[in-house]
Amino acid sequence: MTPFPRPKKKIGRDWLIFFLIFIATIIVLWIFPQKKQTVIHISWRYFLEMIIILPAIMVIIGLFTTWIPKEMIKKYLGKASGIKGFGLSLLLGALPTGPLYIAFPIAVALRQKGARIANIVIFLSAWACIKIPQEMVELQFLGLKFMGSRLILTIILITIMALFIELIIERVEKRKNDLPA
Amino acid sequence: MKWTTIFINLFALVCFFISYGKDKSKTKLALKVSLKSFLRILPLILIIVVFIGLMLAFLSPAEISKIAGQKSGFKGVLIFAFLGTILHIPSLVSFPLAASLLRSGASLTAIAAFITTLTMIGIVTLPLEIKELGQKIALLRNGLSFIVALAIALIIGVVL
User: CB contacts < 8 Å between A and B, how many?
Assistant: First the structure.
């Protein structure tokens, strides 16, 4: 299981990019020595702010990924209906269980089983942007007010968007059926 | 130390002890996943902190404010929403970047737009989404998400 969309090849590439940026930074600071103190100070401060929560975030991701397999999400989401279904789609989407492309096959299977389009859109959107570890890092760096209001607004607006998309798709499909063959 | 730091670490600790009490071997497996994820994200974190250091050392708050602050107006918000759409930065590392911009002159609206489009819209995964879910759902979801992100950003700008 891979909580990040980073195949092995890409990790090597990420380290290479870091290495190149690091060398470029050394050259830049050699040209502008008066900026050296500031760059080191700022980078170090942000590194500390991140590293102090990163192991915890990774433990949370690891535990959730192991305890909540894909099949479980599929099972619960299949039962979702009505307002409760919206809530369940949101919650299941928000569990830290992997990158967005893992969610597509789950969504397809649900669609074939006859799940509501609105539920599927809510599930996908929640999976994309309301992950629990992500909310925690947002809390750390941007504060409770920012994180909280963005979360509440996101929940309200993706629900409205999901209902709107459902309406459009059902209209289009109905019109198709009404047309004489 | 910030209360958020303590809260996040406590939450992880509680989760860990519950898991360990229930199933030792499963918890070990989970920690392996954690370690792998950590090693995966580490180079990206190092890249972003060096980038933040350079950006803040060479751009003054006045200059950042001109691009992304109140003065930039709706155009600045649109630029950041668009950047969030096309850039492919993992959300976990986007928050320190967002915070650094915000602390040195960027507006709440621009930063909220950037984070929201970054997470909600997946240009890189769009072809796969179209293939699996069909053009209609995929294009409607990603297209409307851009408008939703702008709405979220504008409301946050007004409320906070």
Answer: 243
